[in-house]
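stage 2 :: seqdesign
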């Protein structure tokens, strides 16, 4: 596979756009440092004045009298087309015979970053703007539109390109509209609105039996993924002592405890209402995530569960995240076309092992990504083209390209991050933490030790680092990983990342718009800051400005 400019490719973004075996006019254009780009901006606001069906209200149905015609307006989406230079599409284009008015001053200014302070923030929101001329008031209709969360697409090409030769360089959402007598500014955000949707499950009706009693009416059912420990299942039917841990099929219930006392397993049943476990036993209906006890418990009931197994048992951090996003955001659930699945596949090769997630409260898809990825030395965001992607933080090495065309003003050292002298990774979380008073006498010592602590920990410490650096920090990562071995593997990677002093530079460059992506590893050579021989850096921030032609890179290494 041959690339036009080695090393300047995204996590999964360029494998469709820049492979030379496929005709792609924009790919060839992007390889030219001095190219003059042309932009098309396509906006999709909502308006309440979309013209609807003409209806007659005359005396005789269907016979319209003078002045009796009613125009019905129904709200809907409209498409506004703008450009920086003006453009008309050809009759055979996919959007034929359309005019893009040349009113855009700055077709795209957009900033994205995965570094927050001295750590990686995962799902940081990315923002930007589009600047539009409106001195004659022709676009005053924009102020009557509804913009919040509405789709926007920015395409780039060159004079002479046909409409379908333009490439999408940004797809996201409008945040808001601002303006004065001469200009309109549309502020932008990335596609995080797609993952900010609430995670949804079935709801108890409160009609009794397995639908829950009246106290559960309207309450969302719990969700369980991967390997979870010491969850508190929902009591669905007191008389039958039926509990639920998941809205759907699960792989297994490994253990059930009453005040910490382990109950015996009486088997799995196709219908939990037909099960008759003994007084110190429990039965399951795995197909519906249900548990039935043989008697009224003495106290808190908890369970260790292997969760959702619809279409296979999802157990890794990446598998669980994708399972939730694709199936549990209701009508807003993501499809494969919304996700750079290649990036999640590469992350899964680094972030290995079993994990778990129990959802019994309001939570969004973004919260799920944060909980599973951020503590595990990973990050997520959206590409400029609008795809959800993820990556692992690793010490930058084997750069795939060099930073070129640095602005004459030079680069800026944004911050120096002192090393961590101690790093702790928490694993195997107890979803419900119980005190000794919550437990019965005679509880197994291992059970008591587990359920009374929120996490188990593996630790790295280096006193020499502490002695050399008065500001050396301690970092704690409380993960959803299930086993000590997987936590130790993560700890090893985090030590490589955080036990060394790191430098963060801001580097303004020209002639490289849209060529750098979060997660790229690049080589920075400069005659200051000890960079004479060059050093590899991770791209953790990108700011592209179409009006100035400048890209500002934030580099960590």
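stage 2 :: out
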């Amino acid at each position: 596979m041959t690339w036009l400019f080695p090393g300047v490719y995204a996590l999964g973004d360029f494998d469709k756009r820049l492979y030379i075996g496929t005709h792609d006019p924009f790919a060839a254009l992007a390889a030219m440092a001095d190219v003059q780009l042309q932009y098309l901006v396509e906006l999709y606001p909502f308006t309440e004045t979309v013209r609807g069906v003409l209806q007659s209200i005359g005396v005789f149905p269907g016979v319209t009298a003078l002045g009796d015609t009613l125009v019905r307006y129904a709200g809907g989406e409209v498409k506004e087309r703008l450009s920086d230079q003006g453009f008309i599409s050809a009759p055979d284009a996919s959007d034929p015979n359309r005019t893009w008015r040349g009113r855009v001053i700055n077709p795209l200014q957009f900033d994205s970053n995965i570094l927050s302070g001295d750590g990686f923030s995962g799902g940081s929101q990315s923002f930007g703007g589009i600047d539009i001329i409106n001195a004659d008031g022709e676009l005053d209709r924009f102020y009557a539109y509804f913009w919040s969360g509405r789709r926007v697409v920015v395409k780039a090409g060159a004079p002479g390109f046909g409409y379908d030769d333009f490439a999408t360089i940004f797809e996201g959402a409008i945040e808001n509209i601002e303006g004065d007598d001469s200009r309109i500014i549309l502020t932008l955000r990335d596609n995080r609105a797609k993952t900010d949707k609430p995670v949804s499950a079935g709801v108890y009706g409160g009609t009794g039996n397995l639908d829950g009693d009246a106290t559960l009416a309207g309450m969302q059912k719990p969700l369980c993924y991967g390997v979870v420990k010491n969850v508190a299942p929902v009591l669905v039917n007191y008389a039958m002592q039926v509990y639920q841990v998941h809205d759907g099929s699960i792989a297994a219930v490994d253990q059930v405890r009453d005040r910490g006392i382990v109950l015996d397993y009486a088997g799995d049943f196709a219908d939990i209402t037909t099960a008759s476990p003994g007084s110190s036993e429990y039965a399951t209906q795995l197909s519906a995530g249900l548990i039935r006890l043989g008697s009224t418990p003495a106290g808190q009931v908890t369970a260790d569960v292997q969760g959702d197994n619809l279409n296979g048992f999802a157990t890794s951090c990446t598998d669980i995240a994708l399972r939730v996003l694709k199936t549990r955001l209701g009508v807003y659930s993501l499809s494969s076309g919304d996700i750079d699945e290649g990036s999640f596949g590469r992350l899964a090769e680094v972030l290995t092992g079993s994990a778990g997630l129990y959802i019994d409260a309001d939570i969004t898809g973004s919260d799920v990504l944060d909980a599973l990825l951020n503590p595990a030395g990973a990050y997520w965001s959206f590409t400029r083209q609008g795809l959800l992607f993820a990556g692992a933080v690793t010490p930058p090495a084997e750069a795939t390209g060099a930073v070129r065309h640095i602005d004459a003003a030079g680069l800026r050292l944004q911050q120096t991050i002192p090393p961590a002298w101690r790093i702790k990774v928490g694993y195997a979380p107890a979803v419900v933490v119980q005190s000794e008073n919550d437990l019965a006498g005679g509880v197994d010592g291992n059970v008591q030790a587990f359920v009374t602590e929120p996490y188990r920990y593996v630790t790295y410490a280096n006193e020499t680092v502490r002695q050399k650096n008065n500001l050396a920090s301690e970092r704690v990562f409380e993960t959803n990983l299930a086993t000590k071995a997987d936590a130790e593997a993560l700890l090893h990677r985090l030590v490589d990342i955080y036990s060394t002093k790191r430098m963060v530079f801001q580097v303004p460059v020209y002639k490289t718009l849209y060529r750098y992506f979060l997660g790229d590893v690049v080589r920075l050579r400069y005659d200051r800051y000890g960079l004479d021989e060059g050093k590899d850096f991770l791209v953790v921030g990108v700011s592209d400005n179409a009006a100035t032609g400048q890209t500002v890179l934030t580099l960590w290494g």
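stage 3 :: structure notes
- The longest strand covers residues 167-179.
- The two ends are 29 Å apart (CA to CA).
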